């Protein structure tokens, strides 16, 4: 049980490190955000099973994470169509 908590924390820390360090391409940023969401999902699964609570909150969390992923992919597709690539340096953030 304790090993699973440590694996989840390592996943969360690695996802944050990738999010902070690799910000050249939008796809890598989106993948690191999904990795963070996946580690949070595992953390919720472990916590809710530990306190023997219903898993309805996990369905809501999955719903919002799928919507977040779809929104990120649609932004990525629209950026590639307008700018030709997913570099952050190729367009102005203003």
Automatic annotation (TrEMBL):
The chain crosses the membrane at residues 6-21, 28-50, 56-80. Keywords: Electron transport, Membrane, Mitochondrion, NAD, Respiratory chain, Translocase, Transmembrane, Transmembrane helix, Transport, Ubiquinone. It catalyses: a ubiquinone + NADH + 5 H(+)(in) = a ubiquinol + NAD(+) + 4 H(+)(out). GO terms for molecular function: NADH dehydrogenase (ubiquinone) activity. Signal peptide: none annotated. One of its GO terms (cellular component) is mitochondrial membrane. Gene3D superfamilies: 1.10.287.3510. It is an enzyme of class 7 (translocase). It is a multi-pass membrane protein. It holds the Pfam family Oxidored_q2. It is found in: Mitochondrion membrane. The keyword Membrane applies. It comes from the Eukaryota. Its EC number is 7.1.1.2. Belongs to the complex I subunit 4L family. Core subunit of the mitochondrial membrane respiratory chain NADH dehydrogenase (Complex I) that is believed to belong to the minimal assembly required for catalysis. Complex I functions in the transfer of electrons from NADH to the respiratory chain. The immediate electron acceptor for the enzyme is believed to be ubiquinone. This is NADH-ubiquinone oxidoreductase chain 4L. It comes from Papilio protenor. The gene is ND4L.
């Amino acid at each position: 049980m304790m090993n699973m908590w440590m694996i989840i924390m390592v996943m969360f820390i690695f996802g944050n490190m990738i999010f902070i360090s690799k910000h050249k391409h939008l796809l890598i940023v989106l993948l690191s955000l999904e990795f963070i969401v996946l580690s949070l999902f595992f953390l919720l699964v472990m916590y809710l099973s530990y306190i023997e609570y219903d898993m309805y909150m996990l369905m809501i969390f999955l719903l919002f994470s799928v919507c977040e992923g779809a929104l990120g992919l649609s932004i990525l597709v629209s950026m590639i169509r307008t700018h030709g690539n997913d570099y952050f340096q190729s367009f102005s953030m203003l």
